Amino acid sequence: MEATPIIPFLLNKFNDRAINPEFIDAAPTWDMLRSWTQIDFKTLVGSNINSPTNAIYMTYGEHFSFVHFDFYLDKEAYPDNPNRYKLRMLKDYRRLSNGWREVDVEFPTQEESSVEPPNPDYLKVHAAFAKVLNLSGAADYIKSVESDAEMEGTLHPDGETDFSSYLRSKLTITAQVSG
Q: What are the residues whose beta carbons fall under 8 Å from the beta carbon of 105, sequence distance 6 or more?
């Protein structure tokens, strides 16, 4: 079991220098989140990104599927219960570790567990991104590029790969070949 971030840690990997490549890669994503949502993401800057409101405790397999947007938590299924969601898989062939494609998830309140439940706005953003990435096919494309990078040995074992630059280069090659 491990804590899984709802808003990715990658978005927090920059320092105060605007010329830092990590800042340059994270900045457009922050701009997109600011433009598309009403969330004040300043609350996630620095060590605040490690808040319980930005995490869900789950198995490694579910963690991997969640960060790759293979499933999302649907609040619309339970509008009257603020901490209850329906977990929905986006691919027919994907299953949870228990073999199910859907399951009800209810987070305890802070009074019940002394830990703040996940922020529903962060879960809503994750759900929207998961739906868009899967409907557009972008999620599968990103996974294929990541797999290619692993096979080519271009991913750093310490997790510090500039994946966005690698993805941009692959997109450029794809556009040139198909154009």
A: 73, 84, 85, 86, 87
What lies within 8 Å, CB to CB, of 96 at 6+ separation is: 61, 62, 65, 71, 87, 89, 103
| pLDDT of res. 80 | 95
DSSP state of 101: S
- Split the chain (179 residues) into runs of 10 and give each run's mean pLDDT: 83 50 51 70 75 92 89 95 95 90 96 94 89 75 62 55 54 48
Beta strands in 41-134 (DSSP E): 55-58, 71-74, 84-89, 102-106
Residue 136's pLDDT is what? 77
Burial 25-47 (b: 16+ CB within 10 A, else e): bbeeebeebeeeeebebeebeee
Helix (H) or strand (E) holding 3: strand 2-5
Length of the chain: 179
DSSP bridge partners of 84: 106
Q: Which residues, 6 or more positions from 66, have their beta carbon under 8 angstroms from its beta carbon?
A: 4, 56, 58, 126
Cα(150)–Cα(159) distance, integer angstroms: 12
